[in-house]
Amino acid sequence: MWRISDILEKSAFGVCAYLGRKMGVASSRVRVYFIYFSFVTLGSPVILYLVTAFWLNLREYIRSSKNMIWE
């Protein structure tokens, strides 16, 4: 059975989980802070979120292509 947070994390690029792992904080707390900052700053952290998502996807693509070359 899928929880709502699992579905959101899968479709939300895993940015909050990545940041939570790097900072040693629960990803749910990162999500809550992201929502708070989005309301306070009128949505400007969305740009940072999208840039981070792009960077993570690019990084994963590069790592997977390196594995294909070495195999």
Instruction: Note the gap between the termini.
Output: 36 Å
Largest sheet: none
Number of beta strands = 0
Radius of gyration: 14 Å
- Order of SSEs, N→C? HHHH
Structural class: mainly alpha
Number of domain units: 1
Shape: globular
Mean pLDDT: 81
- Residue stretches low in confidence (pLDDT < 50, at least 5 long) are none
Helix content: over 70%
Beta-strand content: under 5%
Number of helices: 4
State the gist of this model.
The protein has helices spanning 4-11, 15-23, 27-40, 45-70. It is 80% helix and 0% strand.
Polypeptide structure, described:
With 71 residues, the chain is mostly helical. The chain has one domain (4-70). Helices cover 80% and strands 0% of the residues. The chain has 4 helices and no strands. It has helices spanning 4-11, 15-23, 27-40, 45-70. Helix 2 packs across helix 3 (27-40). It is globular. The termini are far apart. The mean pLDDT is 81.
Describe the secondary-structure layout:
Blueprint: H1 4-11, H2 15-23, H3 27-40, H4 45-70
Which tags fit this structure?
71 residues; mainly alpha; 80% helix; globular
